[in-house]
Design goal:
By secondary structure, the chain is of the alpha+beta class. It is 50% helix and 12% strand. The protein is built from 9 helices and 5 strands. Strands 1-3-2-4-5 form a 5-stranded mixed β-sheet.
Length: 210
């Protein structure tokens, strides 16, 4: 990649579009087989370690249905289940890899949520890596530290690992290729693919609390 105005890989953009298209067809409301899903020490987590329900979310910042879930459903989940200690949320970003790397670089400065929220709020303005650097400066991140993190591709392998882990989790849950998309959730191992109303999501969580 060139140092300035680096664009995202067009093939990765195509993958994201396909994942979104799949998600449109997927949940309505469809799930696969429950499975054991691994949680790692370096995962991005919201909530307590000892919460009885673990929700793993695979998402993309360029996914319209992910943004819909982020705006209308997730705040209620956080209020009613995460802050009350009933559940914890593990966040794993899908491609473009540069966006996954960016949130990990922001996490180094303990600004993950601020950057995460800003990316979703401005996802229609994301065109290049330079935009990601401008966003970091806008929310008050140390510009030099963030840019060095991005330029060195410090978290390239972790970004690739998230995508590989998600693909593997789909396979373990016996979710067919034409049903694999974002957003995707594993709630104590039970898969739910696609955006869904809060009431449906809450029912799954409640079933795990019994």
């Amino acid at each position: 990649m060139e140092e300035q105005t680096r664009k995202f890989n067009p093939y990765i953009i195509i993958i994201v579009i396909l994942l979104i298209a799949v998600a449109i067809l997927a949940y309505k409301q469809w799930g696969g087989k429950g499975t054991d899903i691994e949680v790692f020490k370096d995962d991005i987590q919201i909530g307590r370690d000892d919460a009885p329900v673990t929700i793993i979310e695979y998402y993309s910042y360029l996914c319209g249905y992910c943004k819909q879930f982020e705006d209308s459903v997730k705040p209620k989940i956080i209020e009613n289940y995460i802050t009350t200690g009933k559940a914890r949320l593990i966040l794993r970003s899908f491609p473009p890899y540069e966006l996954s790397q960016a949130i990990l670089c922001a996490n180094d400065q303990e600004k993950f949520l601020e950057y995460h929220n800003y990316l979703f709020a401005n996802n229609d303005k994301i065109k290049s890596i330079d935009d990601l650097k401008i966003f970091a400066k806008t929310i008050g991140l140390d510009e030099t530290e963030f840019n060095q993190c991005m330029d060195s591709e410090k978290y390239k392998s972790k970004a690739e690992e998230w995508y590989a882990q998600g693909s593997n989790d789909f396979i373990k849950a016996n979710i067919p290729k034409d049903r694999q998309g974002t957003p995707a959730f594993f709630i104590n191992g039970e898969p739910a693919i696609g955006s869904m109303p809060y009431e449906d999501f809450a029912k799954i969580i409640e079933s795990k609390l019994k």
